[in-house]
């Protein structure tokens, strides 16, 4: 039996997932990093090992493929990894008028953002529960409570993550062993697509945008403190609060106008 405990991170090869990996390594956490099979995970591993004395394992898999999550679970079981933290970060999105994108694209988003997240939690929760204290961090979005026209499926998938996280957190609360926290970032500058989306909003986009490192640091800090929801950035936090107070009609009308820039993407 391995004496060390590990943090398991999905989507760890780039963007916010990579930032989670670097943040956790800087906190001396041993890591199991997961992403699609390619060379990038190896580069992230080497980057971490060059600056930290932690144990890092990588596992390349398409989590949406039949048996994908199970193969990861098997790998971890065979290695007898003790896992005390799971970060369900992998996710994808798409913008545009709902009817203009192929159905397969939407089903793939639901598979990765929701089905895989539920599978991961179901497989690994019993493993985490073997530890004295465990943590699960789920990646939602600010859009979870602000349903965005022209990102209908993505925004709905993040509402699912939000509701799921709050619900299982309460289920587990009385046992006092596993903290569940959900992080709801606004736009984060992670990849060329995210940069394009931010630029489409001009100065407004820049005001709410954050860097992956900021999001990761705040989310991990709050997870360890046992905080239920993290909305990184004061302005984003305020926007979510205002959004909850506005009448739905007015809110949705405003959101449609603001996000019309995505319509023809
Ligand atoms: N960026 C934003 O503005 C923003 C805002 C709010 C919430 N979020 C959420 O934050 C999370 C990370 O976003 P990001 O922008 O950092 O993403 P990203 O840069 O596109 O990175 C996505 C990660 O997920 C992995 N991945 C994608 N499909 C996979 C699959 N089928 N199986 C296994 N791994 C897969 C990718 O692996 P490869 O590198 O191998 O492709 C990569 O490591 C997502 O859940 C996203 O919805 C993002």
Descriptive notes:
- The protein is an alpha/beta fold and 265 residues long.
- It has a single domain, classed as NAD(P)-binding Rossmann-like Domain (Rossmann fold), CATH 3.40.50.
- Helices cover 52% and strands 14% of the residues.
- The protein contains ten helices and seven strands.
- A seven-stranded parallel sheet has the order 3-2-1-4-5-6-7, with helices on both faces.
- Strand 4, helix 4 and strand 5 form a beta-alpha-beta unit.
- The chain is globular and about 55 Å long.
- The protein starts with a strand and ends in a 7-residue tail after the last helix.
- The site of NADP nicotinamide-adenine-dinucleotide phosphate has 28 residues, from helix 1.
Number of domains: 1
Query: From the alpha-carbon coordinates, what is the Rg to the nearest angstrom?
Result: 18 Å
- H/E element sequence: EHEHEHEHEHEHHHEHH
**CATH hierarchy: architecture:** 3-Layer(aba) Sandwich
% residues in beta strands: 5-15%
What does the overall shape look like?
globular
Could you estimate the helical fraction of the residues in percent?
40-55%
Largest sheet: 7 strands, parallel
């Amino acid at each position: 039996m391995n004496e060390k405990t590990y943090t398991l991170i999905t989507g760890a090869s780039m963007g916010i997932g990579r930032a989670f990996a670097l943040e956790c390594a800087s906190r001396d956490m041993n890591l199991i990093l997961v992403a699609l099979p390619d060379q990038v995970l190896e580069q992230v591993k080497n980057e971490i090992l060059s600056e930290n004395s932690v144990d890092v394992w990588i596992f390349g898999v398409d989590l949406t493929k039949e048996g994908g999550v199970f193969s990861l679970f098997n790998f971890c079981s065979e290695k007898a990894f003790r896992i005390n933290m799971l970060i369900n970060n992998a996710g994808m999105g798409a913008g545009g008028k709902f009817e203009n994108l192929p159905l397969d694209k939407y089903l793939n988003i639901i598979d990765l953002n929701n089905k895989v997240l539920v599978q991961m939690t179901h497989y690994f929760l019993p493993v985490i529960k073997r530890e004295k204290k465990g943590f699960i961090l789920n990646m939602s979005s600010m859009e979870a409570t602000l349903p965005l026209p022209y990102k209908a499926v993505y925004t709905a998938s993040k509402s699912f993550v939000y509701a799921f996280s709050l619900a299982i957190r309460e289920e587990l609360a009385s046992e006092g062993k596993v903290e569940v926290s959900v992080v709801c970032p606004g736009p984060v500058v992670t990849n060329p697509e995210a940069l394009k989306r931010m630029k489409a909003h001009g100065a407004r986009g820049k005001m709410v945008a954050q860097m992956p490192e900021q999001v990761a640091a705040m989310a991990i800090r709050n997870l360890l403190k046992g905080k239920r929801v993290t909305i990184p950035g004061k302005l984003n936090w305020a926007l979510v609060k205002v959004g909850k107070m506005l009448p739905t009609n007015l809110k949705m009308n405003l959101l449609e106008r603001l996000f019309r820039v995505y319509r023809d993407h």
